Request: fold
Amino acid sequence: MSLLDRQGVFLPYLHLLGVRFGEKPRYSFDERIAAAAHADVTGIGFDGDEFDELLKTRTAAQLQGVLDEHGVTIGELQIHYGWHFGDQYPDYQKIAREREQHLYELAGTFGIRRVKTVIMTPTDLPGPDELAERFAAVCDRAAEHGITVAIEPQSVHPGFGYAAAVDLVLAVNRPNSAFVVDAWHFFRDPDPWTALDRLPASSIVGVELRDAAAEPPGDRLEDCTALNVLPGDGDFDLVRLLRTLDAKGVDTHIAAEVLSSELWPLTAAENVERTVTAVRAVMDAARSA
Reply:
């Protein structure tokens, strides 16, 4: 199967919050799972911190029961951060390791095989060799649990964009080190195509579609977290991206992570329906281009 043969859409955690990340989700767990039971949704992502909140009042078996009732699979758990801190930050190191282990435990409980990671504070990065050593250690620990670690480069704050993220994955060279291509971060990067060309197709385990204006209308963080539009409604050349990835030999799920204040007032079911329709149209356009 090629990328353009893929049907349906995976919905990462942030897509179905109905609010900004960090705020209390607008939709309940049950509402999101029911909405994700749509025939064209192939799975969803979830968040370790929200799992912890839910497990204060419900058992893991009860939550799994909701998933099973609707036939929904959680394919990705977010978000592991802080692993890059060096020895000058012993407290942060300790917190990051404890969080990492907890994510593996949650992943095991719910049968999740992929953990997403980002570097949220690029100004605190160690040198490339030490960074690779630390990420390799994360991947090795994750491998003991049968988990893939998927890194998503960030373009909100300069310092760890596509070139650096590709360098890291290539340097680590672990079978379970992987890469997520998020359209917003891709098209806001200064030279993403060159970086993408260096990355093996087998390293890419997710393609997250979203769209936006050619230039951010204001603050980049606001643009990233609230001003997205559905795939095909903005200026990003998503068709070129999809066709490039397909020609490269990438074969992974198509996702949509649209962080949009225009979607937030909708019901979870309306959000999913509009998203599925938009992704289907962009995929059809890529197939026929």
About this structure: The beta strands are 9-11, 41-47, 74-80, 114-117, 148-151, 177-182, 204-209, 254-256. The chain has one domain: 3-288. Residues 3-288 form a domain with the TIM Barrel fold (CATH 3.20.20.150).
